[in-house]
Amino acid sequence: VQLVESGGGLVQPGGSTRLSCAASGFTFSDYNMHWYRQIPGKERELLATITTGGTTYYRGSAKGRFTISRDNEQKTVYLQMDNVKPDDTAEYSCNVVYGGIDYWGKGTPVTVSS
């Protein structure tokens, strides 16, 4: 299983960015996918889940501003982040639970600053 995130970087407050997570090593369409983030000094936080059927769930500060989506043909899960705030500065990672084991990518950093 391999997960590779991309798309992070510097974003201005109120701006938007889209993160991508390319998956390989498993049948992507058969698994729910998740986005997490970790703010320095804090625990990793679940932001969003998308099921195999495309149902989405959001938690905490992701509600109303972030959108998770997936492309099963491209084996990629996305996180659209809109109206970002300085508090969104964090390392963002995607996750899959495969064979009862959590797999993570290396993450992609997002810095929200003017």
Fold blueprint:
Layout: E1 2-6, E2 9-11, E3 17-24, E4 33-38, E5 45-50, E6 56-58, E7 66-71, E8 76-81, E9 90-98, E10 101-104, E11 108-112
Parallel strand pairs: 2-11
Antiparallel strand pairs: 1-3, 3-8, 4-5, 4-9, 5-6, 7-8, 9-10, 9-11
Walk me through this protein's architecture:
The structure is a single chain. This protein has 114 residues and is mostly beta strands. The strands form two sheets. Strands 2, 4, 5, 6, 9, 10 and 11 form a seven-stranded mixed β-sheet that branches. It has a four-stranded antiparallel β-sheet with strand order 1-3-8-7, with no helix packed on it. A hairpin with a 5-residue loop joins strand 5 and strand 6. The radius of gyration is 13 Å and the shape is globular. The protein starts with a strand and ends with a strand.
Keywords:
single chain; about 110 residues; mainly beta; seven-stranded mixed beta sheet; four-stranded antiparallel beta sheet; about 0% helix
Helix-strand category: mainly beta
Instruction: Compute the separation of the termini in Å.
Output: 37 Å
Radius of gyration: 13 Å
- How is the main sheet built? 7 strands, mixed
Number of helices, counting only DSSP H or I runs of 4 residues or more: 0
